[in-house]
Amino acid sequence: MKPVIVVHGGAGRIFKEREEGCRAGVARAALRGYAVLKQGGSAVDAVEEAVRSMEDDSHFNAGCGSVLNEKGEVEMDAIIMDGKNLDSGAVSAVKCIANPIKLARLVMEKTKHMLLTDHGAHLFAQAMGIPEIPGEKLITERSRERWKKNLEPDSNPEEFQKDLGTVGAVAIDSEGNVACATSTGGLSNKMIGRVGDTACIGSGGYADNHSGATSTTGHGESIMKVVLARLILYHMEQGMSPEVAADTALDYMKTRVGGLGGVIVVNKTGEWAARFSTKQMSWATVKDDNLHYGIYAGEKHIKSVDEALASEREGF
């Protein structure tokens, strides 16, 4: 099997001044994940590495770029899933951790559980030796400004929710195993303790070697109502291509509950898709040593991996 990785940096609206950074961020993440696959690493290794790259990039609503809850704090959710055996690990409402995806993987591999939240996740992180960082280090000026704006009496938080930036990755490795990973800071000015789709298996992501893997982004409550990730894999199990399955599921979510979002998909034969019903979604994929990436519907830049690595410092 030829390895494939697909990543997204969130569906919604990407402001003009942030487009270049978002394109560079997803391209970099895809290249890092692909490097893991090329060296014989597993699909799980690859999606963790790709998502960690985006958690460390303040252009995205995950890790150090996370939006703030109603109290002005960062609370993050993450999930990872191994399609080989359907093992999964997730964390929700975690604070003071740079890379929630790393903690989610430890939940999958070091506990008998699938989801740890808040204080319990914090205690587990300490037990696993995950470094704790001051919450302030995760807060960007942009996130703080957005939080303040949403506190104003005449503000419309829904306008700001369109620029979300949840991150995710799906991959298939040389042995034909698939995996998914998703990480987010959630909704700006959300209620304390709110958990969205990301940490919920079948909503924020799903991976099964029998069909494929997907990671979702968009309006979390809508995604949970239709269990979007699992719905896409169901459509593929009925014989749909990744692209048709993604479009069918996104259309259903839009007509049934009025929700918009985006998805990345890879099937068990290595076909992939990046589809969205929002205005934009930053995405990138590497297959056959070629990097493809874009933000707008119909936009697709293509570079060889060698060319992309050479130009990485210049921002693609």
TrEMBL record:
The UniProt record lists the keyword Membrane: no
GO biological process, one term: proteolysis
Active site annotation, chain numbering: 166 (nucleophile)
Residues the record marks as site: Cleavage: 165-166
Record's signal peptide: none
GO MF entries: asparaginase activity; beta-aspartyl-peptidase activity
Record GO cellular component, one term: cytoplasm
UniProt enzyme class: hydrolase
Keywords, sorted A to Z: Autocatalytic cleavage, Hydrolase, Protease
Reactions catalysed according to its record: Cleavage of a beta-linked Asp residue from the N-terminus of a polypeptide; L-asparagine + H2O = L-aspartate + NH4(+)
InterPro entries recorded: ASRGL1_meta, Ntn_hydrolases_N, Peptidase_T2
Residue sites binding substrate per the record: 194-197, 217-220
EC number: 3.4.19.5, 3.5.1.1
Domain of life according to the entry: Eukaryota
Family from the record: Belongs to the Ntn-hydrolase family.
Protein's name in the database: Isoaspartyl peptidase/L-asparaginase
Record organism: Taeniopygia guttata
Lineage per the UniProt record: Eukaryota, Metazoa, Chordata, Craniata, Vertebrata
